[in-house]
Amino acid sequence: MAKSLLWAYLSGGVHGQKDQAFVHTDKARISPLDRGFLFGDAVYEVMPVYAGRVFALDRHLKRLARSLHEVAIADPYPPSRWAELIEELVVRNGGGDQLVYLQVSRGADEGRDHRFPQGVPPTVFMTGSPYAPPTVERFASGRSAFTQPDLRWGRCDIKTVMLMANCMAKEFAGERGGNEAVLVRDGMAMEGTSSTLYIVSGGKIITPPLSNAILPGVTREVVLELAADLKVPVEQRNIPLDELFAADEVWFSNTSAEIMPVTKVDDRAIGSGKPGPVWRQVFDAFQARKAEEWERPVACALPDAQAVQSMIRYPTRFPIKVMGRNATELKPAVLALVGELVGGPQHITLTERTSENGNFLALTLTIDAQSQQQVDDIYRALTKHPLVMMAL
Predict the structure, then answer these.
(1) First and final CA of the chain: distance in angstroms?
(2) Label partner for 193 (CA 20 to 30 A): which of 90, 244, 316, 342?
């Protein structure tokens, strides 16, 4: 996904404006009087997209609705409309793996006033960015963190854009070579600057309970469900700092890092100094849960859904993911088949990834799709090919 081709969705943005439009990010304009800019009076969500599918969309929209309710900003859209807009943004930005950022502010008034304005529409801004999901190999040596005082406001359960304290703590860790900061309040390890904290002790996962001091993480929800499926015991309670350092394993979870093992805190080794076995169990289960999402219908692969087709504007950059056994014949066969339908392999941008055990190969072919009919023909041809196990 080339930066210059990134699309954004913008609604409002200027006092009294109710226009809604998809624009390139460099053309998006928001008033300097927008309350998100002046006061941090806005909430946000970040959603992962795997192979063109938004992961846990319903959970993210539920949390967005809660954040909006807690700060008394009117939700601009019902969930169905949010889903349509997000999926169209994903398609416009080429599908594949992305992170979608969504922000809703209280809007732009005619001046600067601490009181909430009346009759001003919320400002909605959404955009996507390229994303490389984490792998076991990337986490092989673990990550490091540094402790910092928790200086945030009293409603950390609301996902607002007021993140200065988070940024300062993250910068402190980054300047020392760390990947995250552990925020400490009254001697207790609370969470990261943008992530949920877990420790493992004696085979049990321990994570702080939800409260006004903890963000209800969407990935956290999934992790706790997976732990239950794996029959790994979970305890939700406060984590004293000395217990953090004595833990067998420490992890963080969030949308972009998924489940990140931490092997050093304040330059002190955690457990064996390597990612632990319970982390690996849960990380693998999370990858399997993601794979289940591939069975869910998506705009890019619904040739018979006229309402969804109308969201796609052709010509467009269009990703097609093909998976099969890692045979030497797979890549040239797929390139030849798709190339025949797009005017030659020179019109295909190809990326590939081999599974951890080397048995499977995933190919992402990005093309300049000219019509829905062309996309349908490609999918039909791929799904009939004997070497192709899955085409998305």
Answers:
(1) 18
(2) 90
